[in-house]
Amino acid sequence: MDKNLIFKNLIMKKIKSIVKSxxxxxxxxxxxxxxxxxxxxxxxxxxxxxxxxxxxxxxxxLFGEKIPLAEQKVVLxxxxxxxxxxxxxIHQEKKYLEDLVLTKNYxxxxxxxxxxxxxxxxxxxxxxxxxYCLDPLLPDYFRVGFPSHYFDHVKFVCSTSxxxxxxxxxxxxxxxxxxxxxxxxxxxxxxxxxxxxxKNGKLRMHIHYHKKTPAEPIELNDKIVSEAFVWCxxxxxxxxxxxxxxxxxxxxxxxxxVWSN
Length: 261
Fold this sequence. Notes:
The protein is an alpha/beta fold. The protein has a single domain, classed as Rossmann fold. Helix content is 38%, strand content 21%. It contains 5 helices and 11 strands; from the N terminus they run H-E-E-H-E-E-H-E-E-H-E-H-E-E-E-E. Helix 1 packs across helix 2. It is globular.
């Protein structure tokens, strides 16, 4: 038999052996990601139903928001979209301002990245900004019923936070609301934030401290966060609370914190 052919066969067997040895690890990683994504997606699918019930007055309130008055409702041809956009206006946008402890004009004239935006462009509440909403599940959110076509002014980016498709020093500001604990690799995400944020750019993070869950696999605390962002001058915790708009934490080890430079 040709020696080259024998050598090629040996190499192929070795490659197959290596691939086979790593297969369980790859399958496990995929299973974890799939489970985390499924939990997240199922939550938002159920929310759409609740938004419509709230919009129609079938439930008295949702996360503390009373049913909308007629003059508060966004009215579109599609009832589902009407309910979703009404919830965005009444709850989500106000929630962003309260969670981040900011005013609408804080990022005036800036290019802003919202990491883990979820299905809503809630950060559109900040006036006169060029807004990028980044989330790896965006196509899934749109598939289950969240609309995107009403937001031509927003740039939706389907990507993980660990490998963002932006040039270095691209953003004037980076924000994240209750999402940084959902990522797969916390430290890699922080390094990506460092890469895409301009020198002396603004950084504002609303971070949930908690025990691990399927959808929120990262356990964070003051020490971990401060060490991860040591590269960012003047980055510090500016507030902590058990409460956010419409929700109160009951876990002894849970806390909402806000960090900023």
